[in-house]
Amino acid sequence: MTKQDANGHAVSGATPAALDHLETALHQLRCYIGDPVASVDAALAAAPAMAMGHLLKAWLHLLGTEPAGLAVAREAHGRALALSSTARERGHATAVGQLLEGHWRAAGRTLEDLSIEFPLDTLALQAGHQIDFFTGDSRMLHDRIARALPAWDRSITGYHAILGMLAFGLEETGRYARAEALGRQCVELQPRDGWGQHAVAHVLEMQNRRAEGVAWMRGNQPGWSEDSFFAVHNWWHLALFHLGQDQLDEVLTLLDGPICGAGSSVVLDMIDASALLWRLQLRGVDVGDRWRALAERWSPLATAANYAFNDMHAMMAFMGSGRAACAESLLQAQLAAMANDDDNAGFTREVGHAATRAIQAYAEGRYARAVQLLRPIRHIAHRFGGSHAQRDLIDLTLIEAARRGGQATLAQALLHERVSAQAA
What we know:
The protein is an all-alpha fold and about 425 residues long. The N and C termini lie far apart (about 55 Å).
């Protein structure tokens, strides 16, 4: 049985009830709210032969870079391959298979072609957009969405998400005025869209508009924070705005509350917690025993080495809590990862291993070594993913390592560079 989704695409094996659940899951994913996994499971319970349901389940377990998600995604992918499917669905299956094998860029290219043929496929656009983020391809963060934009208008389901993704792509390519305008339009159309909210936050962060950033985040706080699996990252943005104004009490309140208070073991949440604690430590703030609990949550992933950007943040927690054995296990796992035939091997070789060792060196007081490791990678750091705001941690660490290591002239030069960039 073949039905059509809200944007006119044939969905093989669907029933009306299953399609309703699938649309709910897609809406939840576009906004980063609710439980899209539960919704897609309900869709599959209603129509086990719906290939798109299995493929969406695979995407949901792949795009968080969770090592445990790979087995679930692999099973879902296998189920989809055994079912009747459309050409669009087969395109998704190909991309999922490529990502399962660690070929991020190939999956992104498959989705690129899929989006050119089916520009109203929000899942193809969103999955591709996330892959562009994880591979640090800032140009494609914009271009992928811009190509599809002429096919869209506000009458089409998911239009707000297209604006939000395009806003983030514009921000990551330095086109701040239009990025801010589209991001604000996205949130006006759909206040629950956490990605659009965060796109504007990135603009304000990059332009050092800290007080405006606090106002932006506080003004729509229920929209982006309630029942959102992206909330921790947006709380992190709010904390950065307070940190930029030296409002340390506010930062620590957010850290102990919505950022770390729930003790989340979700990798993306732990990245934000590590990044914030490290920024505080760079400033000489006593963070007490906060590293210990975070390191305990990172410890099961010490040997995962499936995504280099995660490794750098795990190392922060291990060094902050004095877990030398975990730190060494992580470095050994990276050495093994670099021998693989996948994209993460390149991420790790080009940037991740040096960045992770630099964090270790800095924490051990080997500041000259940290500078030596960070200077060659800072201009290519996008190659292991993340946003400009997230990768700023590399520059902040380099500046402080230079200052503490007696390289005052270098530290001052880097600060001049920083002031100029924030004035853009």
